[in-house]
Amino acid sequence: MAKIDFNKIPKFSQLPVKAGAPEGSNWGVFGDDDQVGCFNFLTAEGIIEAARLVREGKVFRLDNPVNYASPPLGGRAAATTSVSSYEHLGILAFDDSLNNYNTQEGSQWDGLKHVGHARLGSFYNGASVEEVKSNRKLGIEHWRNKIIGRGLLIDVYRHCTQSGRKIDPLKPEKYTVDELKGALKAQGVELKPGTIVIVRTGWMQAYLNAPQEVKQAMGVLENVRACGLEDSREMVEWLWDNRVAAIGSDTFAVEAFPFDFQDEGSLHVRALPLLGLSLGEQFNLEELAADCAQDRRYEFMLVSVPLHVIGGYASPPNAVAIK
Hints:
Blueprint: H1 44-51, E1 59-61, E2 80-85, E3 94-99, E4 108-110, H2 129-133, E5 148-154, H3 156-162, E6 174-175, H4 177-187, E7 195-199, H5 203-208, H6 212-217, E8 228-229, H7 233-241, E9 246-249, H8 267-275, E10 279-281, H9 286-295, E11 299-304, E12 314-315, E13 319-322
Parallel strand pairs: 5-7, 6-8, 7-9, 9-10
Antiparallel strand pairs: 1-13, 2-3, 4-10, 4-12, 5-11, 11-13
């Protein structure tokens, strides 16, 4: 991992730094050939500091099981499993195959190939559609050893509900930057450069407890409803200026859903193709959040090892928080 001088990284108000790059983009900040975006903020020094947060050896898995949503959310296909036996060869052994697996059927990191800027016809750092589709740029193999560092839970759902705001997580209600800042203040913790931010919105808990008819309806993308972060310039400015390495959440799309896929102001367009900021979706944060509320320690070491797939568009996080 290369050294990063955080003081030399331009502020959001100073972007873009490259001639011809679109407004609100960091193209060129990490070099014209960069393919990992904000994961550049995760450094060797940051890993060492994150390791010092491990005090009790408690481990929290952040992925939901494969096929946790039945039917899968938004029309994605369910994975099936088949088993092969070697008994006919006199060997008591079995293999299993995960068939028809969509890397975004459940808990996931959105790769930088997942969403491009439609009007510009470009992906992060100006990668073309042809370069992306031919697996020449932005595959998740570039993340194979990147997502390790200080994790920070922002339990904005707990903060807002305890502050008197009534929230229905199964509606497209939006959390503001001020509410995220308020949650951090209430937790007695602050953002630091190179942090992997994990936001609990309350959606996953609400979805898992919802009646089956609600889950059945959300098997169609047009019926999915979910709370999430506001899709504002202020939001991405705050994330960039605090040198956030990635942002994950327990909700369907990080930002409130539905949103207009043609809207250049959506968080997906602002984050993925313009800033190279990966979005983590449908994490399960309940056990971790309960522990953080109990011991008042909201920071931890986070280790996430995505699938090593050449040219991959997304991956389950395979993530653990270690305290």
